[in-house]
Amino acid sequence: MLKRLNIIGLLAVLLLFFLAAPVFAASAINQDGYYKGIRLAGKVKVVEYNGDIKVQVVDSFPDLRVKVVEHFPDDIGEWQFVDYGEDFTIQYVDSFPDIKVKFVEHWPGVE
């Protein structure tokens, strides 16, 4: 009887693990490179308050790899920083970000 309870307990723990794993792996950014309808490519303005997206810069496990470009920010993860004419605004934060980004020289895009 004790062995049967141990096996049932083990199966319950494994079931919970497999059900919770997708939640931990989920990203706020979909595979097409959108966050809440905002395409994460284009001209970006950094603001102090009320940005469209709260961004935390990280070294590991980013949601998005960002390459800063001077012209033609057409692909997902290519950002051109501007003072006006932006496609969306970002606000840098240290905690509770909407997305986490890592600045890269090559291969921008969704992680």
Shape: elongated
Summarize model confidence as the mean pLDDT: 88
Strand proportion, as a percent range, falls in: 25-35%
Radius of gyration: 19 Å
Structural class: alpha/beta
Q: How many alpha or pi helices?
A: 1
Query: What pattern of helices and strands is seen along the backbone?
Result: HEEEEEEEEE
**Uncertain runs:** none
Q: Widest sheet: strand order?
A: 3-6-5-8-4-7
In whole angstroms, the N-to-C terminal distance is 47 Å
Total discrete domains: 1
Number-wise, the strands total 9
Please describe the biggest sheet, giving its number of strands, its sense, and whether it closes into a barrel: 6 strands, parallel, barrel
Helix content: 10-25%
